[in-house]
Amino acid sequence: MSRGISQASMFFLVLIFVLASMAGMRMVQHQEQGVTQRTGNDQLTRQGYKEVVKYEDIFREMNKDIVEIEKIRARHVEWSPLIQRISQNIVQKNLTIDQLITKDATVMLSGTANTRQELLEFEEQIKNDECIDAVDVPLSNLVVKENVPFQIDATFKKDCLVNS
Questions:
Q1: Residues 100/128, Cβ–Cβ less than 8 Å
Q2: Which of 77, 79, 80, 88 shows the shortest CA–CA distance to 128?
Q3: Which of 8, 22, 109, 159 is 20 to 30 A from 84 in CA distance terms?
Q4: d(CA 126, CA 93)
Q5: How confident is the prediction along the chain (164 residues), in pLDDT tens digits per residue?
Q6: What's the rounded Cα separation, in Å, for the pair 12 and 22?
Q7: Three-class secondary structure of residue 149 per DSSP
Q8: What is the pLDDT of residue 53?
Q9: Long-range contacts made by residues 61-67, C-beta under 8 angstroms, separation at least 24?
């Protein structure tokens, strides 16, 4: 669904750009017709030229904005599917998550597991996920047998973060 939104957003941006370009071309044509009809009047010719330059500047700025928007869209990470991969294991193991933080390619989870064994099984499932590059579980998480507070840092592979 987010891919559709991204494509729809991009289509909308391109549509706006095309319509604005067509309107600008029409305005330039209109200005050219007006200028050629008034060849005897230099004042109107200069004014028409200023209008054309003004619209060229506007279009140049719009093009820069579109390029910046595309750069932002290309760097955007859609975290929902990635977090959903981890959350399926959380529900299966009956873990409680108190905090979830994302930074770059890493998701940091902290919470409580009912037992040490459930936490170890959760860690193993995350490590076996094809999109997970690395998992860091401090040994201090494994000291307690029941009601185990934990913190896990899971780093996703770059390929899984690419928003295409």
A1: no
A2: 88
A3: 8
A4: 12
A5: 455 566 777 777 787 887 888 887 888 777 766 655 555 566 667 777 888 888 888 989 989 988 888 887 777 777 777 777 777 766 666 788 899 888 888 889 899 998 889 888 888 888 888 888 899 888 888 888 899 999 999 888 877 776 54
A6: 15
A7: strand
A8: 87
A9: 62/17, 62/20, 63/17, 66/13, 66/17
Number of neighbours of residue 122 by Cβ within 10 angstroms: 23
Q: Residue holding tokens 């004042």?
A: 43
Give phi and psi for 16, each to the nearest 5.
-60, -45
Integer Rg of the chain from CA: 28
Cα separation, 149 vs 111, whole angstroms: 6
Which amino acid is located at 130 in the chain?
Answer: E
Evaluate the CA torsion angle 104, 92, 135, 140 in order and state its sign: positive
Sheet with 96-103, side-by-side order of all strands: 96-103, 106-115, 146-156, 132-136
Token digits of residue 103: 């930074």
